[in-house]
């Protein structure tokens, strides 16, 4: 026998009367044959099935010649409540790499185990992360034992921090001037900033000192590939006290190009662009410099990526240059390290977390739960019971976390009903060893929707905004081929079949139907009060929009940007027949990007 194949884990819900263990194992032999062998399992304490946890069951099998000891780990799981949300950073214009699994939790806040995440990356591109400081929410879901748990990734577009600068001038491919001049041109990129006047570690225009008609001096360098720079340091040979002819230049001009050539000993380009330093150059304080060396740093407002740089010096008398440093910035992006929330708000109560992580409040429900979260920590709310929640916040860098407990002190505890599990459906993975399956062990009752939960009706995804007011927002269209959709209707109300609850549709969220290229007509229900940023952006054939009501108060920027050049907008008579209201509504639409040629009717 060379090996055998058997699962090493099984899963069963708390309260199971028994668990079904694998009856056999497949043994493999060196000659390529296989044999199915019966497993004999030892006994285990069935009391262990009453509480969540894991235990090991020993057994063995024999093929008639050999006896092999085996074991299996039984995982007894309770009622999973949530999957842990996630936060992170990304570079500008970079899609982040999101985790593949997320931890799941029981009601008491105890972690169960990590489960696989499916992220909804529809519409997420590098352009989504172009603005530094933006926080982008990506939705996902975690599946465990037939149930699905929503999860979000809060992604902050981080600002680059310059850690250091490296001199790339020393790696120049060619170095030229418009001379002839004196001393040594290559000395300006030899890495030696200082000169005492008696060495040749400099370049100068000494021979032009008595020529009052001399022109500007020009130094040009290029590289084999483009470099990045936002700063150039020039170290001048400068003797103001002993030689009045050794001066600083009266003017320095910087130019760069993205493409160049090298012809007849010259660096040539037809596309030189001037870049002007910000303010006056800063003096470089370096105690190792000789007294006849003066370093000045010229800084630019933006980072450029030249293939060649040209520096022009205007001067009187003569100038000397010891070193030219083209400084390339090295940048890093830093995740925040704090998991602290500044405030937790529930109804009319605002809590200020500090050293105390536990709160008792007078509210009668958790409606209106919100957070002040300046650190972009991930926040996961665990509903412990009808009167208690735990709030788990984890820092962007994942290294610190806080857990807050909030209790409604005047609300009596309602014990959660316990279901009787179907012991015949004990979960035993059988596809791969060590890999638990996600077959459904039982069919639990449908939990009530809570704030932030999502559901889908007729190719539109909705998110619960307020449970007590029964309001939802349109999150996005879920059509598999959005490019073929020609009409979208936002209803007045929508019914969630699972909870048998009818919700009022009050919002259309950002990017909901962005780039539906063939969308021609939209009907917006009478209860919609706000339309989010970019919600219909890029719907280039959208030529008819119907507002069923007068509730719309806010239409965010670019909501109707890049729609058809001629749009007909139907509105209720109360707007259409009132010139002042019609003009105000039309202005609101055009500010959101809709064509000024729109026709209100």
Number of helices: 2
CATH level-two architecture of the largest domain = Sandwich
Question: Which class best fits the helix and strand makeup?
Answer: mainly beta
Per CATH, the superfamily of the largest domain is Galactose-binding domain-like
Poorly predicted regions are 419-446
What is the β-strand count? 45
Average pLDDT rating? 88
Could you say what the CATH topology of the largest domain is called?
Jelly Rolls
The dominant shape is extended
Classified by CATH, the class of the largest domain is Mainly Beta
As a whole number of angstroms, the C-alpha radius of gyration is 35 Å
Tally of individual domains: 5
How is the quaternary structure best described?
single chain
- Helical proportion? under 10%
**What's the end-to-end separation, in Å?**
83 Å
3D structure, described in words:
The structure is a single chain. With 601 residues, the chain is an all-beta fold. It has 5 domains: 3-79 and 419-425, Immunoglobulin-like, CATH 2.60.40.10; 82-160, Immunoglobulin-like (Sandwich); 163-332, Jelly Rolls; 338-415, no CATH class; 454-600, Ribonuclease Inhibitor (Leucine-rich repeat, LRR (right-handed beta-alpha superhelix)). The protein is extended and about 105 Å long. The termini are far apart. Strands 13, 15, 16, 18, 23, 24 and 26 form a 7-stranded antiparallel sheet that branches. Strands 34, 35, 36, 38, 39, 41 and 43 form a 7-stranded mixed sheet that branches. It is built from 2 helices and 45 strands.
Task: Explain briefly what this protein structure is.
The protein has 601 residues and is mostly beta strands. 3% of the residues lie in helices and 42% in strands.
